Amino acid sequence: MVSETIALRGHIIDSLILPKVLDQIVTGEAVFNIVEFKIGQKRVDQSSAKIEITAQSREQLDELIGRLREHGAEISREA
Amino acid sequence: MRELLLCPPDHYGIEYEINPWMSRARGAEAGIAQQQWKNLYETLSKLDTKIHLVPPQPKLPDMVFTANAGLAIGKRFIPSNFRHQERAGEAPFFVDWMEKFGYETTWLPKNLYFEGEGDALFAGDALFCGYKFRSDIQSHRAVADLLGCLVISVELVDPRFYHIDTCFCPLPDGSGFWFPAAFDEYGQRTIRDHVSELIDVPEEEAIHFSCNAVVLDRQIVLPEGAPKLVATLQERGYQCQQLPMSEFLKAGGACKCLTMFLPQRDGCA
Fold this sequence. Notes:
Chain A is built from two helices and four strands. By secondary structure, chain A is α+β, with helices and mostly antiparallel strands. By secondary structure, chain B is α/β, with parallel strands linked by helices.
């Protein structure tokens, strides 16, 4: 099993980017653990999340993260 | 009175292929394109607008599509970072013109693709931004940082509708019209959540770029070929001006692509 933590930031709740990313993790046969989640207080405030993803293999994980990058996910340097 | 930026089609033509509509073999008829653009110019001129013209440049045929120049909010201008090298040469000419016109330019990081008003339309207080084919979602975050407004990112999934202004048109009363299948299921849900009384445009009308419309209060200037949409808009009290746009459709553009608002909004509040 291999793991990597990704970061998402932006209006990820209003845009449904967070549920989209979580759905793609699950359909990609990986599992997630939300390690940090900050919700913007005001309508214009952005939110952020750090999500640990665990997959069966490095290849599977890299392929999944490659797809998540299209939706704004970045590798989190802080584990 | 709204101010608009247009670019005469003196150098317009199909000189490369960067979307599914473009075919160098088919080409565009220059004389007809000139007439269609002039018709758009004259139609918009009669609708309480002030039109400015940016000088067209040789070897930049798509400069005619000024909606992709960038995004003007208040007196700030965010230039496009074009995804395709074929269009990248347009940016300095648009920036030069906008700065001479009094705008303050703020560039996004060069590694973030962003194609201006073509992928960024206000509906209510939210700026709806399309991503995937041309603009990166990361550019939306940068725009939100700069403008301090709610930016709703929606994924585009049909390459024929590669900018959000080809498949979504917000209206000033809070409603709008769109071609839903151009968006992924999350994008569809997001737009439905935020925009009331959406009019679904059928595919046979959407392919005429019916959503690529210029909205000026109760007046809507759109390409011909959408009788159902026009009837619905008229029932809701809008007046529609339908224009032939065949030669610009060959490049994947129509009325809205040929027009940029100066500014689109005074601010985000």
